[in-house]
Each structure stands twice: as structure tokens, then as C-alpha cells.
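re the bet — no i am not wrong, look at it urself. input seq straight from the record:
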Amino acid sequence: MADDDGKYKKSCDRLRHELRDCLIYSDCVQKDKRTPRECLKLGTHNPTVPMECHELRYRFFQCKRSIIDMRARFRGIKD
């Protein structure tokens, strides 16, 4: 959620919102009438979910993981 200044309150909110928007506007949700969660569970072999959404999912996972991993907090996120 963005506050009044347009900044996100939580550390991975920007990626979360990008992933949500990507999935909502994908053919899997629009045409197949599935939920975004169901579309992600179908995997990368599903042609109705763009590869961009899967890349955003991976980046969101890495962001959440870096919050928990103490080594990443000191070393930074690996590229």
C-alpha cells in the first residue's frame, strides 16, 4: 500500500503490487476466469501467464528471502 507521499510502507510492497497487477491483467485471470494464485500454481509451462509475471514472482521471493537471511542484509542481494 502506498501512503500519501507515494512511498510503500513495507519493504517488498512495490514488487507485490507489480506482481498483482501483472497477474490481474494476464489472460489467465481475464479470459480463463482463474484467481491469480491459481495462475501462479500452474507453473511456467502455462502460456496464458506472461514470463514477466514469473520473473516478478521470483524477484518478490528473493526480496522476502533477503529480509529473513541475515547474511544478505550485510552482503546485499546477489545478482
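see?? The mean pLDDT is 81. told u. also Residues 1 and 7 are 8 Å apart (CA to CA). so pay up
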